[in-house]
Each structure stands twice: as C-alpha cells, then as structure tokens.
Design a protein that fits this description.
With 614 residues, the chain is α/β, with parallel strands linked by helices. Among the domains are: 163 residues, no CATH class; 73 residues, no CATH class; 184 residues, no CATH class. The protein is built from 24 helices and 19 strands. A six-stranded mixed sheet has the order 7-12-13-3-14-15, sandwiched between helices. The longest helix has 17 residues. The chain is globular. The two termini are 45 Å apart.
C-alpha cells in the first residue's frame, strides 16, 4: 500500500486553492530552500505520525494556518458589503488517497474506501471551527468592534483576533466528515519522520522511551529478554556481596542511624542495585557501538551516525508489531538524507536506498526530501518530483519526466538519465535557468550579468547550465511540460555549417511568452559576437589583454599588427578558435577588474536575454 495522492489546503505555505501532488512508493522531493518540503512532511504527520508530541501538534497554532488565507478572511470581515453568512472561515485540510493494498491492509482501511472497486481509500485531517461555534455571531461581534475603531480613526484587519481557540481537529475516512477514523485502526498506519535537525547520536542510545533505539528494542516480546534479566539478577547478587561495597553500606548506615529520627518501623539499611529488573528499564541502558574497532556513537562522526540512524530505521521499523500494536503500513520520511555526508557517500546512499524500499514490498513507503544536487542526480528521474513556486508565487509540483512520452520520446529520457549530473541537476533548485552550449559561456555569462546589473545570478536564484553541446530540447521539455520557471537559451547561429537552421528551428519550436526565450548570436559564434561588440575603444584593449594572457608572444605581435585599427572579427577569432576556454577564463579575469566594467559591451543577443529574465 502507498499514498497515491496528497492534497494540502491552508497549511503553512500551502494555501487555497489546494496544493495537489501525486506520490509513488518511492518518491524523491527536490526543491530550493523554504519552498515547502518540510511543511509537506509535517502535513502528512498530522494524519499518520504516532509520536507522543504529534497529538499536540494536531491542534494547530495560528502560525500553522496559511497567512494569505487569514489575511483574506480578515479583509472580508472588514468589508461590510459582504454579509456575515457569505464569509467562509479558513479550514486546514490534508487529504491522502491510499491504493495498492494487500488483504491485511484492506481490512484496516475497510471503512474508508471511496470507489466501488474498493481499490482506493481516503483519509482526511481537518482543522476547522467547532460544530457549536456560532460563526455569524462572532463576525458580527468583530464588526461592532471595527465600527468603534473606525469612529476613532484606527482600524486595520490586523486588529481582528483570529478565533484559533474555537478550532478543533478531526480525522475521518472516505468522503464523509462524520466517519471519524477509529484510532485503533489509524495506529496501524504509522509514520517515521527523520527531520533535518535530527540528533542521530541521542536516538542511537536507548536512554529514554521516545528514542529510536529504545522503540526498536521494546517492539520485541519481553520474554525474549529473560536471559538478560537472569544475568542481571546474578550481577546484583555479586554487587551486594562485594566486600568494598559492603563496607560502604555499613558506613552509610551508621551515619544514617545517627542523623535519623528513631521510630518503631525505621530501617536505615541500604543496598546497591545495578539496574531495575524491569525490561523497559533494562533496555534503556543499551547503546550501540560501530565498526571493526568498536567506537561508541558518542565518539562517532556525525556522518557515520547519520548513516547508522537511517539504516536502523529502514531495517527494523517495517516490523509488523510495535509495542503490541500491529503495523500494516509505515511511511518513512527522511528529510535531507545528505546531512553530514560527503559527496561520495551521498552518491552511494542515493544509489542504494531505492532498492531498500523495493525489498520491503507493500509494507513501507519511502519519501525523501533533499536539496543535494548529488542525491538528485543519482535518484531515478521517474520518481523525482520538484516543488517550486509558480509565476503566482504559489507552491506547485512537477515530476521531472511528467509529460515526456516513454515510447515517443525515449531519446530524451535516455539523455536526461545519462547526462544529468550534480552540476546539471542544479536546474531543479533554481527559480530561473540559463542554458548555454559550452564552458566559455558558462564562465562569462555570470560575469556579464553581474557587470550589467550589479548583482549575481545566484542572488536572483538563477542557475546557468552548460548542456555541453546543443541538446537544449531535452531540458526545455521539462520546463514546457510543467516545471514552469523562466528558461533562457543562448545559442550560436552556426552560419555556414550544416546545422545553421538548428537555432532558428529551436526558437520556433520552444519560444513561449513569459516562459522560454531562445536568443541567437548575430554572427556564427558566441566569441564572434563578443569581438564585434568590443572591436574598438576600451573593449578592444580588454580583449587584447585576454589574448596576451592566453598567447603571450603571439598576443603582443597581434596587438602591434592591429595598431590603432579596430579589431577584425575574422582574424581575432582565428587567434582564439583553438583556445576558447582559456581565452574565456582570461577574459573573465580581465572583467573582474572593476575598472574594465564600463568599457566592455555585452553582445546584444545576451542583453536581450537578460532583459527577458528580469
């Protein structure tokens, strides 16, 4: 069984209309910071998590309700043209649809099916005004207060106190809000949430009941620990017979007899105990050690402990019984699995974690959120979904391969699977992207932008992606079919080559107002447009400076040959044609000198592209 569909309304950054998203048995959620990945996992926790604290978290605070929805609600109250009966209170809702169940799971969700075939079940969390709350009376009372404040010349929607104390939560099955979920059955569907701020070291020591190691140890039958209890009893006998400890007990008893009040039932004798014989207390004394040369987790590195923590979760929390309660489904959500891991370990974890979920069968669903380019690049693209803010600054989701036909566009899927690496996967964390052909553009375009706008591409959330050739269409399909962020292509005209129609064809096919812009060089190549734009004045000497750094001897000779004349595009290009990346690097060095900013001209096609990206 797995969660097939998720819908979130008015919870934190997810507003109304609701945020909707499909999920897979194994799903990787990627996206930039603060886009809602953590909120998505917390929303699922409102239904499934059985942590002690979650029952309190289900009673939301005002900051958990979408800010824009609250503001819109308050503005309607201030608008007396809207009748009190028409105003709807913001309702927080989280809905999941479950599918692909085995017989045991069908028995658990039997009262929550939503289709005749009994293949889909629905569970909803709702945080709304209590049934006995008089909404109209509350609004009218607020409006009476508003009138008084207006008469005093002091009225703002912020003065309205939202009635959070009159809200109640409910969890119901199917499409009927009155069909409240029986907690006995809901407890059989669990969630384990490894948040980004997890303390792996503490969780691997079973010193408290809520620690991970303790919860895994206690899920076994207590009788299975009888041999440990027996040895512990023997140890207690040895402790109390130890001569040194006997002497300490006698000394303490004598002093107690002196300072204590005497009574008929007073007994100042003492004993030592190694540990309580109760299993739940005994298990709290257990911690883990790791490696061929055993080291306690307190002395282990953070990255190694993080791997141990994840392994413990995945290997043992899929058990059917935990604390005497049968568990027929477990959602494991891991936030930032890359925490404290170097890139090589991130790659290795990413390559293996998906197979772990497959081996668990239908008992476990695995949901990862990440902003690691290494994790994103190694995961299956078909299971990778991007969360991003759309043009209306609302959260949206898009599976990377969504809309790309598996048969019709097999070459695109093959290309993306093969060539998306940790660098190219940066596009999935961007707000805007610029696609370029090669290393020269990748080096220089960011500097051109910074010199023109006095801010970096990173500052505006724009990534530049070198597609290492002209395979732009594979990346543009992702944007056009659902990943709606601005995309700019800067490409060569390739005049005089067999491919000279390629750029025009690309522009005709993919140019889309407000979404995709294809800008083409005036001349055959990127470098020739740079030369033409800077063939005279200060730009000329900036290019000559870069040439002299690239080819010290020939650069000086060429400078003398050219004299006071403008640069000749053809001859200058022939000097750098075999040294494009070196020339680009040296030109970048020239342009980092602030004194050269004013004299250098950005080619027109690039400037048009920058204007589109603003």
């Amino acid at each position: 069984m797995y969660i097939k569909h998720l819908s979130i309304t008015n919870y934190r950054n997810f507003g109304d209309p609701p945020f909707k998203m499909e999920l897979r048995p194994f799903t990787v959620v990627i996206g930039e910071n603060n886009v809602g990945k953590t909120n998505l996992l917390n929303a699922l926790g409102l239904i499934f998590s059985q942590e002690i604290m979650i029952f309190r978290k289900r009673v939301l605070e005002i900051d958990d309700i979408n800010y824009a929805s609250i503001e819109a609600f308050k503005n309607k109250i201030c608008d007396f043209d809207i009748s009190a009966e028409e105003i709807e209170f913001p309702v927080v809702s989280v809905e999941v649809i479950l599918t692909d169940m085995n017989e045991d799971q069908e028995a658990v969700v039997g009262d929550w099916f939503i289709n005749r075939d009994l293949t889909e079940a629905k569970i909803s969390y709702q945080f709304a005004p209590a049934a006995n709350f008089d909404k109209v009376a509350w609004i009218e009372k607020q409006r009476d207060l508003i009138k008084k404040k207006r008469d005093a010349g002091d009225c703002e929607p912020t003065f309205i106190d939202f009635p959070i104390g009159d809200y109640r939560y409910s969890i119901f099955g199917g499409n009927d809000p009155s069909n409240e979920c029986n907690m006995y059955f809901l407890r059989m569907l669990k969630m384990e949430f490894l948040d980004a701020l997890r303390d792996a070291q503490k969780e691997l020591i079973a010193s408290r009941e809520y620690r991970l190691l303790y919860r895994i140890l206690i899920q076994k039958d207590k009788e299975k620990y009888d041999d440990i209890k027996m040895v512990l009893q023997q140890l207690d006998d040895v402790v109390n017979k130890n001569p040194n400890l006997e002497g300490i007990k006698e000394d303490v008893k004598k002093l107690l007899d002196k300072v204590s009040l005497q009574s008929a039932d007073s007994d100042n004798s003492i004993n030592f105990i190694f540990s309580s014989p109760e299993v739940h207390e005994l298990l709290k004394k257990i911690s883990m050690i790791y490696g061929a040369d055993p080291i306690s987790v307190e002395r282990n590195g953070l990255g190694r402990n993080n791997l141990l923590y994840i392994s413990l979760i995945l290997s043992h929390l899929s058990a059917h019984e935990v604390g005497g309660v049968n568990t027929f489904f477990r959602l494991i959500a891991i936030e930032e699995p890359e925490a404290h891991l170097h890139p090589h370990l991130q790659d290795h974890l990413a390559e293996n974690i998906e197979s772990i979920q497959k081996d668990s069968g239908k008992a476990m669903q695995l949901l990862l959120t990440t902003h690691s380019t290494h994790i994103a690049a190694k995961m299956s693209l078909s299971n990778s979904v991007i969360i991003f803010n759309d043009s209306n600054n609302k959260p949206a989701s898009h599976y990377i391969l969504s809309g790309i036909g598996e048969k019709e566009e097999k070459s695109t899927i093959h290309y993306l699977t093969k060539y998306i690496d940790a660098t190219k996967s940066r596009m999935f964390f961007a707000r805007k992207i610029i696609l370029v052909e090669g290393i020269a553009e990748q080096l220089l375009i960011p500097i051109f932008y910074e010199n023109s706008y006095d801010r970096t591409l990173e500052k505006v959330g724009c990534n530049i992606i070198n597609v290492s050739g002209v395979a732009f269409s594979h990346f543009l399909k992702i944007i056009r079919r659902g990943f709606f962020i601005k995309g700019l292509v800067l490409t060569d005209k390739d005049t005089g080559k067999k491919t000279e129609e390629r750029a025009t064809d690309l522009k005709n096919e993919y140019d889309q107002d407000g979404l995709i812009r294809v800008e083409i060089t005036k001349n055959a190549t990127f470098e020739k447009d740079i030369i033409e734009a800077n063939k005279s004045d200060k730009g000329k000497y900036i290019l000559l400076g870069a040439l002299k750094e690239t080819k010290p001897q020939r650069g000086l000779e060429y400078e003398q040959e050219i004299g006071e004349n403008d640069l000749d595009i053809k001859s200058f290009f022939s000097e750098i044609e075999q040294y494009k990346s070196e020339f680009a690097f040296n030109l970048a060095s020239q342009l980092k000198d602030t004194s050269n900013r004013e004299g250098f001209n950005v080619p027109a096609y690039i400037e048009r592209g920058f204007q589109f990206m603003e």
